Amino acid sequence: MTIRTRKFFGTIALLLLVAVWSLLGMTVAQTPWLANSGLLQAIFYVVAGIGWVLPAMPIVSWMARPDA
After folding, report:
1. Which among 11, 41, 16, 37 is positioned nearest to 29, based on CA atoms?
2. What was the pLDDT predicted at 37?
3. Do the domain assignments include residue 67?
4. 52 domain residue, yes or no
5. Residues of the chain predicted below pLDDT 50
6. What angle in degrees, to the nearest 10, is found between the helix axes of 53-64 and 38-51?
7. What is the pLDDT of residue 43?
8. In the prediction, which pLDDT does 68 show?
9. CB proximity list for 48: less than 8 A, separation 6 or greater
10. What is the number of structural domains in the chain?
């Protein structure tokens, strides 16, 4: 697979990851146990905001891999 094709599929994968991650984050943020606590909300938003990077890193490294 050429680098151009990997970047195309990687971009689609990253867009899907961000969309699904944000929808799941919004769903979890509305749960009553989290919505009632300001401290838990702050912790959740920090973790959710940074957490999407972990699954994105392998996708980006795969996209940047040179051609064989």
Report:
1. 41
2. 87
3. no
4. yes
5. none
6. 10
7. 94
8. 78
9. 21, 25, 28, 29
10. 1
Domain that holds residue 11: 3-62
Tokens of 7: 């970047």
Cβ pair 1, 7 in contact under 8 A:
no
| DSSP letter string, 12-65 | HHHHHHHHHHHHHHHHHHTSHHHHT-HHHHHHHHHHHHHHTHHHHHHHHHHHHP
Which pLDDT belongs to residue 67? 84
**Does the residue 29 lie in any domain?**
yes
pLDDT at position 53 is 94
Token pair in block for residue 59 = 């996708």
User: What angle do helix axes 53-64 and 3-29 make, rounded to 10 degrees?
Assistant: 170
Establish if 68 belongs to a structural domain.
no
